[in-house]
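QA checklist item 7 of 12: single-chain prediction sanity check.
[x] sequence parsed
[x] length recorded as 290
[x] structure emitted
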Amino acid sequence: MLRTKSTAAAVTLVTLIFLRSNAVTGIYPTAQTVTWKSTNFKTILTWEPIPTDYSYTVEFSPVARDKQRNSNCIRISTTMCDLTSSLADLNSCYVADVLSEPPLGVTSDLTEFPHTSSSRFCPANETDIGRPDFKLEVSDNKKTTTLYVTDPLTALFRDGRQLTIRDIFSDKLHYKVTYRKNKSSGKKVFISPTGVIELSALDQGESYCFNVQAFIPSRSIDKQLGELSQTQCSDDDEQSFFEVYSVGVIVTVILLILLLIIITVVIIVCCRRKKSALKMEKEGVPLQSI
């Protein structure tokens, strides 16, 4: 028993010495693959690897300005830091350092710790724009189709209200509409400066399919377009039953009808047999085995 206690004490002492040595010599692994991930201004810094006997602290700053820290990203044991609320000036560009530090509760005499710097990130120019939703409305005379686009929400708030990408980009925000006839692969494109988009050069009575995505011409080419919306198609007045409903739906309906017929026939046969048996029983005729 005494030997067990001594062994445990020795292990604890070695561990403390090891942690202390790490803190002093600064041999903690540096962060790798430091990456900005941002959609609709929800901005997260990520890196690798998961720490073992150390922790991470994130420092960030606008380019060439004093460094700051987010209180939720000091001596953390995870590999991500949400900086959404910290990047207040969306038109500035930021850099971040991920420091490898002792874990919580372990002191160090070092004044500088190993760190890895991120690339420069400019929220207004680089955040990805998510896909918009839109409603489709065809005029009574079938000559005009109007798309009502809902601006995607951002992760930012002002005076208690959640901001949209229109609030951020104002008149810099356009929408790109890609459309085609329902039975055709040929596509056309229309650019609109607003979220209410009228398309009148369409063939009357034809069904058209539409996709919408945010378009910001002032950005670099690889960041101009947002995520593509889901496809919506207008109705075709001349569509046949087989065009309106898919093969799966038609087969399901046929099977249900057949099942209903079978059930009806079975019920009728059972009722007739039961009625016949009762009649024979009343007349005193012996029942034949079936």
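[x] summary fact logged: Residues 1-5, 13-25 have pLDDT under 50 and may be disordered.
[ ] second reviewer sign-off
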